[in-house]
UniProtKB/TrEMBL annotation:
Chain's role: Component of the FACT complex, a general chromatin factor that acts to reorganize nucleosomes. The FACT complex is involved in multiple processes that require DNA as a template such as mRNA elongation, DNA replication and DNA repair. During transcription elongation the FACT complex acts as a histone chaperone that both destabilizes and restores nucleosomal structure.
Chief location bin: nucleus
UniProt domain FACT complex subunit SPT16 middle: residue ranges: 136-281
Record note on quaternary structure: Component of the FACT complex.
Subcellular location: Nucleus; Chromosome
Protein name: FACT complex subunit
Keywords: Chromosome, DNA damage, DNA repair, DNA replication, Nucleus, Transcription, Transcription regulation
Highest taxon above the source species: Eukaryota
Length: 329
């Protein structure tokens, strides 16, 4: 009997323990469901903000601004498409040889290679060159490079040469001469025809153990380039020069600073005079002056000192003028 009573007591205790566990489990589930409901409510409140009158106005203005930005972006894309098509057409025309780079307009007076000739006859080649075969020679008077090729001197005008470069490899000197080619600064019509195609040379390389003659040729070529540039600048500037007709009494502005700077010092301070047919700027404390004819001015722009301490008078020239030995517009 005692054993049966003990077993009954154990069963009752086990049942009570199970009931407690079940109640604890139910309580936890209820608490978990309550937390989930609270989270859903909080997230719903965050997702559905209260829109007031001022907020509606801001949303409307933002939407209208977005539409304007989209329209501006569409216009920009259309413009980019037009520019891309124009650029592709220019590249196609350039590489097809119809026009040289920088010569998009017809009849603008571009320098053509066909206008230049190295020598009109064999007698014009310097005799000292013929007495020393196998050496490079730069003729400064004719602006010609004489290159020994297969035992003969072949003349190349300096206008055909793009650049020169000398380098040393293993104690041996190399001089590389790069020429203009179709689509790379010159047009196809500048080169002689060889059947359906054009004949041209891209580069030549010369090898020598001593660098003295190559350095001389390189210096002479740079001197020729400098002379050619001076001729071009002088021809352009000559078109815009003329005599300034001065007046007895003329208006003038004093203590002005001119750009580009010329003379000595960091600033060009002087007096601007207005005469019958042009301006004259006299540098203070010196004899340097710059004359600008009215007929040479394309645009004259006056900028008052609004939001700045500087008053500007900007002159845009039709043709370049020389200021401090430099060409400027």
């Amino acid at each position: 009997k005692e054993r049966e009573e003990r077993e009954k007591a154990k069963k009752k205790a086990a049942q009570k323990e199970k009931e407690k566990e079940r109640e604890e489990r139910e309580r936890r589930e209820k608490a978990k469901k309550a937390q989930e409901k609270m989270r859903e409510k909080t997230s719903r409140q965050k997702q559905e903000p209260v829109v007031t009158g001022s907020a509606r106005d801001r949303l409307r203005s933002r939407n209208s601004q977005t539409k304007q930005d989209m329209a501006a972006q569409a216009r920009l894309e259309e413009k980019n498409v037009e520019l891309r098509a124009k650029k592709l057409a220019e590249l196609k025309e350039r590489f097809s040889g119809k026009a040289a780079r920088g010569d998009a307009k017809a009849g603008d007076g571009a320098q053509k290679l066909t206008r230049y000739k190295a020598y009109s006859s064999f007698d014009q080649i310097p005799k000292e060159v013929l007495s020393r075969p196998g050496r490079l020679y730069m003729d400064l008077d004719k602006e010609v490079l004489l290159a020994p090729i297969n035992g003969c001197f072949v003349p190349f005008h300096a206008r055909m040469i793009k650049n020169m470069a000398r380098q040393t490899e293993g104690g041996v000197q190399f001089l590389r001469v790069n020429f203009f080619t179709p689509g790379n600064g010159k047009g196809v019509d500048d080169f002689p025809a060889a059947g359906p195609r054009r004949a041209y040379i891209k580069e030549l390389s010369f090898r020598c153990e001593e660098a003295v003659n190559m350095d001389t040729v390189l210096r002479s070529f740079k001197e020729v380039q400098k002379r050619m540039k001076q001729k071009e600048d002088g021809g352009e500037v000559q078109q815009s020069t003329g005599e300034l007709r001065r007046l007895g009494s003329f208006p003038c502005l004093r203590d002005l600073s001119m750009r580009p700077i010329f003379g000595t010092g960091r600033r060009s301070v002087g007096t601007l005079e207005a005469h019958q047919n042009g301006f004259r700027f006299n540098l203070s404390g010196g004899k340097d002056k710059v004359d600008v004819l009215y007929s040479s001015v394309r645009n004259a722009i006056f900028e008052p000192c609004e939001g700045s301490m500087v008053v500007l008078i900007h002159l845009r020239m039709k043709n370049p003028i020389m200021v401090a030995k430099k060409k400027t517009l």
